[in-house]
Amino acid sequence: MSELNLILLGPPGAGKGTQAERLVEDFDLPYYATGDILRAAVAEGTELGRKAKEYMDRGDLVPDEVIVGVIGERIDSPEALDGFLLDGFPRTLGQAEALEDALRPLGRRLTAVLSIEVGDEDVVRRLSGRRVNPKTGRVYHVEFDPPKVEGHDDIDGTKLVQRDDDREETIKHRLEVFHDQTEPLVEHYEAKGLLRRFDGSRSPDEVHAHIRATLATLRLEEQL
Ligand code: AMP
Predict the structure, then answer these.
(1) Pocket probe mutation, ligand 1, options 31, 56, 127, max atoms within 8 Å of Cβ
(2) Which residue has its alpha carbon closest to ligand 1 atom 8?
(3) Is residue 44, in this structure, part of any structural domain at all?
(4) Is 35 in the pocket of ligand 1 (CB under 6 A)?
(5) How high is the pLDDT of residue 224?
(6) How many angstroms is it from 69 CA to the middle of ligand 1?
(7) How far apart are alpha carbons 208 and 74 in whole angstroms?
(8) Residues 111 and 23 placed together within one structural domain of the fold
(9) Same domain, 13 and 39
(10) Do residues 109 and 203 share a domain?
């Protein structure tokens, strides 16, 4: 099997996490979501968590130098030899360059950047209704994917919570940050011929089918 080094790109609430769960199953790739890594660090009270918390609470990005090392370590780990799936990284041009600098000495390069596109209004509706099981990370939505018992996880009954940064004012700020700092990556990767676009307003199943078909085609092309 050829390497599959993938990035999921898109605004908060585009459904990157949902697609990632499926792709991890399809392709057996290690999945690195910087948001999850940082939230775990905050919960554990590590040095990384202490550095990141104030930025996260405001909906700002943590500084590049705080996050770049975290990902560098992981892509250079034995489990990531056949590929990886990044979610929430890179989020700035500086991070994209740092990633390229980390891959180059390993003789590796990105396979594709999967850009999931949704409008701002959809993002606000999706994120403000999002509820999470704080123990397992499982995600629900009060309107689109409600739990069987309101406010509780279907499987272990844990009380669901709203992420602090999923409140409406913070969502709007996160969107601004996305447009300012992360959206330029679309052009960056397009110029490199790596960008693949997906309509994130479609159902999760449709987006997934489209991504799978795209990756299958990429693999065929590689073999030619
Ligand atoms: P997410 O779960 O991907 O929406 O990330 C939640 C928060 O973690 C973001 O709003 C940022 O504060 C921080 N974060 C996650 N990934 C990055 C990154 N690559 N660069 C900077 N900050 C990040």
Answers:
(1) 56
(2) 35
(3) yes
(4) yes
(5) 66
(6) 14
(7) 25
(8) yes
(9) yes
(10) yes
Instruction: Count the neighbouring beta carbons within 10 Å of the beta carbon of residue 195.
Output: 18
Task: Report if residue 168 sits inside a domain.
Answer: no
Atom of ligand 1 nearest to the CA of 56: 12
In the chain, the number of structural domains is 2
Count of CB atoms situated within 10 Å of the CB of 193: 8
What is the end-to-end Cα distance of the chain in Å, rounded? 14
Domain that holds residue 146: 120-162
Which of the following is catalytic: 39, 74, 126, 163?
163
pTM: 0.91
The answer to whether 138 is a known catalytic residue is no
CB of 59 sitting under 6 A from ligand 1: yes
φ, ψ for residue 150, nearest 5 deg? -50, 130
Catalytic residue among 16, 39, 74, 196: 16
Residues 40 and 149 in one domain: no
Could you tell me if residue 50 is inside a domain?
yes
Give the mutation target among 7, 58, 61 for probing the ligand 1 site: most ligand atoms within 8 A of CB: 61
pLDDT tens, position by position, 101-151: 999 999 999 999 999 999 999 999 999 999 999 999 888 999 999 999 999
Q: Same structural domain for residues 22 and 78?
A: yes
**Using H for helix, E for strand and C for coil, what is the string for 144-173?**
CECCCCCCECCCCCCECECCHHHCHHHHHH
Does residue 58 share a domain with residue 8?
A: yes
Clarify whether residues 97 and 132 are in a common domain. no
Residue-wise pLDDT tens digits, 43-68: 999 999 999 999 999 999 999 999 99
Query: Residue 78: which CATH number?
Result: 3.40.50.300
- Residue written as tokens 């959206």? 183
